[in-house]
User: What shape does this take?
Amino acid sequence: MYAISPADLGTEKTSVQRRRPARSAGAEGVTRRLTPGQHLFFESDRAAFVYKVQSGVLRLTRTQKDGRRQVIAFGFPGDVIGLPCEGRHTTECDAITPVEVLPRRCDISEPSGMDPQLRARLMEAALNEIRMLQDHFLIFGRRLASEKVAAFLVLLLDRIGEPVGELQLIRLPMNRADIADYLGLTPETVSRSITQLRAQNVIALDDANTMVVRDEYCLRCLAEGDAELCACA
Amino acid sequence: MYAISPADLGTEKTSVQRRRPARSAGAEGVTRRLTPGQHLFFESDRAAFVYKVQSGVLRLTRTQKDGRRQVIAFGFPGDVIGLPCEGRHTTECDAITPVEVLPRRCDISEPSGMDPQLRARLMEAALNEIRMLQDHFLIFGRRLASEKVAAFLVLLLDRIGEPVGELQLIRLPMNRADIADYLGLTPETVSRSITQLRAQNVIALDDANTMVVRDEYCLRCLAEGDAELCACA
DNA sequence: CGGGACATTGATCCGCTTCAAGACGCGTGG
DNA sequence: CCACGCGTCTTGAAGCGGATCAATGTCCCG
Assistant: This one.
């Protein structure tokens, strides 16, 4: 869908990082910047690096033959993404906001020569990813759409929530379609669920991608299917 | 739902949940045997070992507060299961057939003293698990129940299919409820989908847990949503 | 100001869940 | 050997929730 687009179009005020190797995958230890829509890697790509996300948000997806897309995960700052299997990436990855990632050379097949510390971190990252995928399954398997959406918002809240006075703010980096493909729903259903949460005064929307959590306890109850425990219902 | 009953009968009949204090978690390198329903570990257990499955089939599950169960994966011979996160198991695990596993001591936090070969295998196992979980997502995200079930049968076919003349045989080690909880369906819907596949002459059932794949090509088409490509529809 | 991408809302339809009943296989005990 | 009970699988009928299709609203950016 997206063609390779020049990376030096927008938001280039930070440093003089103009000598980025063109069209190369990057270099060890040199921060790589992506603009929204730009790909970091594709499925089946030979994996030269794993990437530590420094800022921004990435989207990890797999697509099936019928064109349907599954969002496997979102990559937030602090995440290590791009762990390969048998030397190849197992998902597609593109940026949904301006992104900075730090590439680390990653030759899993030659672990003997690898820095022990890096090796340990890689293992830790892999085990963490396993747990996050399992958590994702629990959300994905929720019965009602509203529960899925609430659980997703809780996830975001814990990950990128920003305190605003007594309450918390969530700046949604992804659009409704991304949320839908993460949860196994349609964008319309996601929108309806959000509208419903707003009607219950659990959240408030500034604009479509900026929400204030007005009743965090209630949101967490709804996320677990305990609608009864929540006075908002 | 399940009665507590002694599990040492040696019979492999009904699945019996038997909570057993893991006073003898096993010993490094000594094959451990489980009877159906017996647990290998529980969620949040401190993880002393990972296990290589030698024979039989295990079920890895996570349960949520409302009692709903999500089958995360099945452990087949050759699989390495029980990879911990932060020193603890992230799922529950019990046997659904008689099982033999080989425990390997696994102190991820102390990787320096670990045999490099074992370390490499652990990493490989972790990366493989990530890919398998991602594959699971694609199946879970299929639109129609019949596609999910077909995709699941293809998975089993490739994993434990037994050639029988020209065709292939699948001995289902798990019941309909397990399949349902793996796919995010109800047992009734799984049953109906199987009935439908049988009516289309794609499969034939000997008994409920023994099926012959009569048209493998068609099954694979249905699994990918290409019902049109299949004359059986 | 106008165009495009995205979000919301509405109406309808379909597939799955739910609840219920019956069938089947298997082990036990008479 | 057969009757019984239990767990599982199958099948049926009804209701509901989300998908789909369509129209409108909103924001952003040129």
Observations:
- Residues 63 and 118 of chain B are 31 Å apart (CA to CA).
- The interface with chain A takes residues 62, 64-66, 68, 70, 72, 83-86, 90-91, 108, 111-112, 116, 119-120, 122-124, 126-131, 133-134, 136-138, 140-141, 143, 184, 224-226 of chain B (CB under 8 Å).
